[in-house]
C-alpha cells in the first residue's frame, strides 16, 4: 500500500499543476475552450465570425513548440485574457505541419502545412488577425490587418488583441500598434488602467 501511494505521489509531483493550461489535443496542440473546431473553410469561418460579431483570427502552432506552451500556460490561461479573446474573436487553430485541408480566403484548397508555407509562417506561435471584409482574391496573409509572430507577455498580447478588436489600425491618428502599446504600458505604470 505504501509503495503504491509513494509511486502515485512521485508521478503527481513529476507533472506540474497545469490546471489553467488548455488540454493537449490528439494532434499535440493545446486546445483552449474558445478555439473553434471548423472545416477550415476560411470564407465560412469569416462569415460565421461576422454573424457572431467577432473577428476571425488564425492561431498557427506546432507540436512540441515551447513558445506555444508558454503562451497557453502563462497568458491564455489568465481569465481576463481568455475572456477577452472568447468575447471578441473567432479562433481557428492551424497546425504548421498539419495535413488537414484548408480552403484559404482566395478559394485555394491545400493542406495546413502548404497554407502556412503560402502565408510565409516560419515559426510558432503565429497569430493572424483578419478584417471583417476580405476581397475574393486575397489569401489570409494578404488580407491580415495584423500578425503577432512569437510569444509575448500578457500586456503585449492583450494590447494586440484590443488594438485589433477596436480597429485601431484604421484610425488616422498616427498611433500605430507600437505607439499604442507604449502608451498602454505607460498607463499601466501610472496605475491608470489594468
How would you characterize this protein structure?
The model is unreliable at 4-19 (pLDDT under 50). The protein has 194 residues and is of the alpha/beta class. It has a domain at 19-152: Glutaredoxin. Strand 6 and strand 7 (109-111) form a beta hairpin. Helices cover 40% and strands 18% of the residues. The strands form 3 sheets. The chain has a 5-stranded mixed sheet. It has a two-stranded antiparallel ribbon with strand order 1-2. Helix 4 (79-88) runs parallel beside helix 7 and helix 7 packs across helix 8.
Question: What's this model, at a glance?
Answer:
The protein has 194 residues and is an alpha/beta fold. The protein is built from eight helices and nine strands. The chain has a domain of 134 residues: Glutaredoxin (3-Layer(aba) Sandwich).
Amino acid at each position: 500500500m505504501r509503495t503504491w501511494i509513494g509511486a502515485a505521489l512521485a508521478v503527481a509531483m513529476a507533472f506540474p499543476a497545469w490546471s489553467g493550461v488548455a488540454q493537449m489535443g490528439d494532434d499535440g496542440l493545446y486546445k483552449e475552450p474558445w478555439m473553434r473546431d471548423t472545416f477550415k473553410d476560411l470564407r465560412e469561418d469569416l462569415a460565421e465570425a461576422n454573424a457572431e460579431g467577432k473577428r476571425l483570427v488564425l492561431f498557427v502552432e506546432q507540436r512540441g513548440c515551447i513558445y506555444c506552451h508558454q503562451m497557453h500556460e502563462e497568458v491564455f490561461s489568465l481569465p481576463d485574457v481568455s475572456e477577452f479573446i472568447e468575447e471578441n474573436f473567432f479562433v481557428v487553430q492551424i497546425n504548421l505541419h498539419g495535413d488537414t485541408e484548408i480552403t484559404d480566403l482566395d478559394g485555394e484548397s491545400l493542406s495546413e502545412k502548404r497554407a502556412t508555407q503560402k502565408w510565409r509562417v516560419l515559426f510558432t506561435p503565429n497569430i493572424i488577425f483578419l478584417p471583417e471584409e476580405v476581397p475574393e482574391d486575397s489569401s489570409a496573409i494578404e488580407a491580415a490587418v495584423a500578425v503577432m509572430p512569437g510569444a509575448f507577455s500578457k500586456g503585449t498580447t492583450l494590447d494586440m488583441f484590443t488594438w485589433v478588436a477596436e480597429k485601431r489600425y484604421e484610425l488616422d491618428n498616427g498611433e500605430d500598434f507600437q505607439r499604442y502599446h507604449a502608451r498602454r504600458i505607460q498607463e499601466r505604470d501610472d496605475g491608470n488602467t489594468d
